[in-house]
Design goal:
The chain is extended. It has helices at about 5-10, 20-40, 40-60, 65-95, 100-135. The chain has five helices and no strands. It has two domains: about 1-40; about 40-135, Orthogonal Bundle (Helix Hairpins), CATH 1.10.287.3610. The longest helix has about 35 residues, at about 100-135. The protein is an all-alpha fold. The relative contact order is 0.09.
C-alpha cells in the first residue's frame, strides 16, 4: 500500500523540499508570477502608477500610519489584480466555452479589483484633502 503523502510528493516536488531550498524555489515561483502578471495590461498600468504613487506616499503621508495606508492601498490594488488574473487563468484553462459559474468567478474577481481601486482612490483623496486643508 502506498502512502498518500508520498504519492502527492511525486506529483508536486515542491512539497518534498524543506528549509532554504524550499524558500528559494518559492521565491523563484513568486518572481515567475510577477513576470506573468507583467504580461497583463491592467497589471502593467497599475505597476507604472505605483512607481509614481509609492514615492508620493512618503511625501504626502503626514506620519508613518498615513504613509503606510497610502502605500499599502497601492500595493493592495496590485495584489488583487494578480489574484484576479490567477482566477481568470484557471477558468480559461478549464475551457473556452461559456459557463455561468465561470462568469461569476471572473465577475467577482473583477469586482474585487474595482473595490480595491475605490479604496485606494478614497484613501488618496482623503490624504490630499487633508494636506490641502491644513496647508491653507
Amino acid at each position: 500500500m502506498t502512502d498518500p503523502k508520498s504519492a502527492f510528493n511525486d506529483v508536486n516536488p515542491q512539497k518534498s523540499r524543506t528549509g532554504l531550498n524550499r524558500v528559494l524555489h518559492a521565491g523563484g515561483y513568486s518572481l515567475q508570477g510577477l513576470v506573468a502578471g507583467w504580461q497583463e495590461t491592467a497589471f502593467r498600468q497599475e505597476a507604472l502608477a505605483a512607481l509614481v504613487m509609492l514615492p508620493l506616499a512618503f511625501w504626502l503621508g503626514a506620519d508613518w500610519v498615513e504613509t503606510a495606508l497610502l502605500a499599502g492601498s497601492v500595493l493592495l490594488v496590485m495584489i488583487v489584480e494578480l489574484l484576479n488574473t490567477g482566477i481568470e487563468s484557471a477558468i480559461d484553462r478549464i475551457g473556452p466555452e461559456w459557463h455561468d459559474l465561470s462568469k461569476r468567478a471572473k465577475d467577482m474577481g473583477s469586482a474585487a479589483v474595482l473595490l480595491s481601486l475605490l479604496l485606494c482612490g478614497g484613501i488618496w483623496l482623503a490624504a490630499i484633502w487633508q494636506t490641502l486643508m491644513t496647508s491653507a
